[in-house]
Write a structure and sequence with these properties.
globular, two-stranded antiparallel ribbon, 2 helices, two-stranded antiparallel sheet, Alpha-Beta Plaits, single chain, 70 residues, 4 strands
């Protein structure tokens, strides 16, 4: 299974990854704040990920890792 991992403690909640995701499976968590005071991004439906890595490419803070199922 493809997997997206987001370092929520370093995420600044800019939302660029959510906008870039063609499957719409990344959102900003409006209920949680990280230690920096930001609402971090989260993957809502991991099983729908196609591992295109658009989220990781768009992330200016390099906090997203995409792993492809081989």
């Amino acid at each position: 299974m493809n997997k997206v991992t987001i370092d929520t403690e370093r995420c600044k909640g800019c939302g660029l990854c959510a906008n870039a995701c063609p499957k719409g499976i990344i959102t900003l968590n409006g209920k949680t704040l990280n230690s920096q005071g930001y609402h971090p991004a989260e993957v809502t439906e991991q099983e729908k990920c196609i591992a295109c890595a658009m989220c990781a490419l768009m992330c200016p803070h390099v906090v997203i890792r995409v792993e492809r199922d081989v």
